[in-house]
Design a protein that fits this description.
Largest sheet: none
Helix content: 55-70%
Order of helices and strands: HHHHHHH
Shape: globular
Number of strands: 0
Distance between the termini: 22 Å
Radius of gyration: 16 Å
Structural class: mainly alpha
Strand content: under 5%
């Protein structure tokens, strides 16, 4: 759920709580073991509130991956291939290093359910 600057602050806080809880759960366990019930509890929201914004956990995961991708593409938006190849590689590693453990689990974990998610 993309939150615009004009939306209610309560909606923004709810979405941020969902994201924060989801990232913590990603760091704690395999994706296939995460449930909406435990995510809602950790985010301190009602399960129905989660479903108001996301039909499934997969939709939340896709949005998270999209956010990561869009932020990286913004970082390299002014670079041109092949001229700026070295700069784009450097930007990728710099960006990746600042994203945190949830990003690492989704993008680099070589075992468990996160391997399939990258596909």
């Amino acid at each position: 759920m993309q939150v615009s600057q004009y939306q209610d602050l309560r909606v923004q806080r709810t979405i941020n709580s969902i994201y924060d809880a989801f990232k913590r759960l990603i760091c704690e366990k395999e994706y296939s073991k995460i449930t909406v019930t435990e995510l809602a509890k950790m985010a301190q929201i009602n399960k129905k509130t989660f479903y108001r914004y996301y039909p499934t956990l997969d939709d939340l995961l896709i949005e998270l991956q999209t956010r990561y991708s869009q932020a990286y593409l913004k970082e390299i938006g002014n670079l041109q291939y092949p001229r700026d190849l070295a700069k784009s590689v450097e930007a990728f590693f710099t960006y990746s290093a600042t994203q945190g453990e949830a990003y690492d689990r989704i993008t680099t974990c070589s075992v468990g359910s996160y391997v399939g998610i990258r596909q």
